[in-house]
Design goal:
Strand content: 15-25%
Number of helices: 12
Helix content: 25-40%
Largest sheet: 6 strands, antiparallel
Radius of gyration: 36 Å
Shape: elongated
Number of strands: 23
Distance between the termini: 73 Å
């Protein structure tokens, strides 16, 4: 009251700051009107940022505050300025706003949050709500507290519930309502924390984190808890969860990979079966699919299965190749295990670092030093494919017909190998080219298994898959999403397998 407004600006979305002074004393009104946090503060000092700030409402600059009143039974108050200008603070939760009314016009001339279109037709007189708080009306609404006093919030409703209000008779309910009103009129303000959120209460609180009889002090502290402390706690919790997710994924990978590695290390090598077959070539007739032979490794007679369309020598060669690939796979798994263990250790260290942080400045430094914002952006980037790795080769699998086109257009190189289930719809598959390295047959077979799995042939026992370098795959203008023309393709037969089975 009596101070003149000398500045009005915003430097954060949905936050309005109004500076008032009488020449010797100053006071700011800081209105945070974010839908998730709507609250006011009245600091004695506020440092305006040198950038990302905009001056607002020149109509009120230089005007003196002549009167301040609260609307009856409503979460709103007004400030009268000279020259018939009224500043209305409508504190309706997610729809909070600041409105300017001029020359006793019933409708506002300016809004702070213009997206709240209904406020453009808000008659300020409608904000005054007359409530009959007599017993007759209480009886007419059958003791329904929310109908009797619509402005009751969560905390007073819970207070009534704890006092047995719901089961009480009308006389007892009336007594409890009168007791509640007396308590609400007591000038004692408490800030309490419930479910990771902060609330202002005018009811007696058992364990308040702050308490005062000064309403301005209470508003300022509530602002600090809701806007500063709660935001800090929320961001800290977010990054702890981020690293806990990494830790959980690393632990799961280690468990599965260690099991797979143990299985590979303990199972008999395919080379042993190849040795037995080569030692008994004279006993194996062409076209034989299974035969009982003496296994000199186990010193037992065992049944060995062969492929009908391969000679025993060629089949043994494939087993030797498979055994060699197994050694490569074991080495690869061991390297991956060590890398993943390093990730797990790093995640655990980051969680410990975060748990020791107690201030926003420390948290911001942590986020900046660890480049977390950029990492989060990269993680959230939507890519049109699933990514897998086989024997050090990256394999991309399109997510949809539209994604297939985008993958070919933006992520494929002419020397990459392209695969697709033959004559049926399905995902495009790419094996990314590695300079100077030929695509191993085993990698092509694994990629073909994925191509068969991500196609209409998913449930077939055997499926044909075509493959060719990307430079022989072209999109025809006007064709349907995912449709392409292919030249110089080869065909491989593959058993449809899920990523879990392939990897």
């Amino acid at each position: 009251m009596g101070k003149s407004i000398y500045e009005c600006f915003s430097q954060n979305k949905d936050e309005l700051v109004i500076g008032c002074s009488d020449g010797t004393d100053q006071r700011y009104i800081r209105a945070n009107l974010l839908p998730v946090i709507s609250t006011l503060a009245f600091p004695e000092d506020f440092k305006r940022s040198k950038k990302n700030t905009i001056s607002l409402f020149p109509e009120i600059i230089g005007k003196t505050v002549t009167n301040i009143q609260v609307y009856e039974n409503e979460r709103a108050f007004w400030m009268d300025l000279d020259q018939n200008i009224r500043l209305v603070f409508k504190l309706h939760g997610t729809r909070s706003n600041v409105l300017i009314y001029e020359h006793e016009n019933p409708l506002p001339s300016l809004l702070f949050r213009n997206e709240l279109r209904d406020d453009k037709s808000l008659d300020q007189k409608s904000l005054n709500v007359s409530l009959d708080l007599g017993f007759d009306r209480f009886a007419n609404v059958e003791g329904n507290a929310s109908k009797f006093i619509p402005t009751l919030g969560k905390i007073p409703r819970n207070w009534l519930k704890e006092k047995g209000y719901i089961e009480a008779d009308l006389k007892r309910k009336w007594s409890l309502i009168q007791e509640l009103i007396d308590l609400l009129d007591t000038p004692l303000f408490s800030i309490v924390k419930e479910d990771q959120d902060y609330f202002l209460s005018t009811l007696p609180a058992a364990n308040p984190i702050f308490q005062t009889s000064d309403p301005i002090e209470a508003c300022n502290e509530l602002f600090r808890y809701k806007v500063v402390i709660q935001a800090f706690e929320k961001e800290k919790k977010h990054w702890i969860k981020y690293f806990e997710d990494q830790k959980k994924k690393a632990q799961s990978y280690l468990e599965k990979t260690e099991s797979k590695l143990k299985s590979l290390q303990t199972e008999a090598s395919p080379a042993q079966a190849a040795d037995v077959i080569m030692a008994n070539l004279h006993q194996i007739k062409p076209g034989t699919e299974k035969i009982e032979l003496f296994n000199f490794y186990t010193q037992k007679e065992e049944v060995f299965r062969l492929k009908k369309n391969l000679s025993p020598q060629r089949f043994a060669e494939s087993l030797y190749r498979k055994s060699k690939n197994r050694q490569v796979e074991i080495q690869h798994l061991e390297e991956n295990l060590q890398a993943k263990q390093n990730q797990l250790d790093l995640a655990e260290n980051k969680i410990r670092d975060l748990e020791s942080i107690s201030h926003f400045r420390q948290l911001k430094s942590f986020v900046k030093d660890n480049n977390l914002t950029q990492q989060q952006k990269e993680k959230e980037e939507q890519v049109p494919f699933k990514r897998f790795e086989v024997e050090g080769f990256e394999i991309l699998v399109g997510k949809s017909a539209k994604s297939n086109d985008e993958m070919l257009r933006r992520y494929a190189w002419k020397e990459d190998l392209w695969l697709h289930a033959k004559d049926v719809s399905g995902s495009h598959v790419l094996i990314k080219y590695k300079s100077g390295v030929n695509f191993p047959k085993s990698v092509i077979e694994n990629a073909a298994e994925l191509a068969a799995f991500y196609s209409k042939n998913k449930n077939e026992s055997l499926a044909a898959v075509i493959y060719t370098p990307v430079k022989y795959v072209r999109k025809v203008k006007g064709s349907a999403p995912g449709a392409v023309m292919v030249d110089k393709e080869k065909v491989v037969m593959a058993v449809p397998k899920s990523p879990r089975e392939v990897l």
